[in-house]
Amino acid sequence: MDTNSVIYLVIGLMALVLAIIVAALIIRAARKKGSRPDATGISTQSQDMPPVDSAEGTRSSTATGTVTSGSPESASPQMTVPAIPQVQTPESATSRLIRLRARLSKSANPLGKALFTILSKNHLTNSDWEDVEDTLLLADVGADASSRLVDQLKSDVRIQGETEPNTVREMLKTRLLAIVDAGMDRRLCAELSETQVPNDQKPSVIIMVGVNGTGKTTTAGKLARFFVAEGRTVMMAAADTFRAAAADQLETWGNRVGVRVVRSDKDGADPASVAFEAAHTAKEQGSDVLIVDTAGRLQNKANLMQELGKIRRVIEKTAKVDEVLLVLDATTGQNGMAQAKVFADAIGITGIVLTKLDGSARGGIVISVQQELGVPVKLVGLGEGPDDLTVFDPATFVDGILAVN
């Protein structure tokens, strides 16, 4: 064998050895990066795996926006799929109304007890009637309404010649029902049937207003559940960009029932921009309802009017605003009336939502706020549960505030 042949043979052998070494290194690296069996023998990701959310049974990845769904035992190796939130089924409107009626009928009300004590007398003196009026005032019925109610009741008793306590109480119930005004239209536009709302008029836009602390954002979330239970498609807008937790809170409510929330990634962003984007998106996607949560700051009336007015204007470039609902805390009573008037002047309201009505002896706020603002109470919150929001029913309300059992 000549010298050149030897050189070529050595070079060939060295190339073969180098190829084998490189292949071995590649295989080794692949094994390190690959999956390893766990105790059950099912492959799971071994590197940089985010923690398991024990409540949901999902693995989340903020870097990729994807998650591995299910437990490690049931997942395929390295497989990622879109997150599937655990969507709750809200209680139907009919069911919650029945439940909340029962709650009202079983709870004794201080107003009912006080009136029962006074009206149980066989002969009512002028002093007794004054006590009735004072009791109504303490329940936040309002001065004008209380005075008128007592005058009407006294006239009924005198004309009909009735002194029997049960009959007098029934007269009071009838008068209370009349002053609450059972004939008011308390329906929300979004409750109208599909045939009553053409597609080109969707979404039905509801703007939620009220000072912070009244439960406005929570009520927006509960209202979304209410419509989802009725088969409506809902979207929410987090236009309260000044309270850091407001958007997160609204998104939590939305995630529970599969409702999308349009929000800004930056605190303090322009609320009108969020509202405009939400209206455009809801229109584009054909949503039935858009609920817009707004800030409850009250630095001064001019500032509030400017901000809320701008939100309404930009929304109406895309969709009609059907409702502006003022959220009031029933426990604040007459103290909340001044705030209510500010919002009424700022944006114009179509209805009232009274929260915490179950824990208040001041149920008469329903009467006074309707008379002061000239708009009906449409929804009431009667508890802290996610489905403890229902339509306001005048007969149930009057029975509730007169309950003594």
Automatic annotation (TrEMBL):
Subunit and interaction comment: Part of the signal recognition particle protein translocation system, which is composed of SRP and FtsY.
Keywords in alphabetical order: Cell membrane, Cytoplasm, GTP-binding, Hydrolase, Membrane, Nucleotide-binding, Receptor, Transmembrane, Transmembrane helix
HAMAP family per record: FtsY
Protein name per its UniProtKB record: Signal recognition particle receptor FtsY
Catalytic reactions on record: GTP + H2O = GDP + phosphate + H(+)
PANTHER family: SIGNAL RECOGNITION PARTICLE RECEPTOR SUBUNIT ALPHA
UniProt xrefs under PROSITE patterns: SRP54
Keyword Ribonucleoprotein listed: no
TM region(s), chain numbering: 6-27
Family assignment from sequence similarity: Belongs to the GTP-binding SRP family. FtsY subfamily.
GO CC aspect terms: cytoplasm; plasma membrane
GO biological process, one term: SRP-dependent cotranslational protein targeting to membrane
The protein's enzyme class: hydrolase
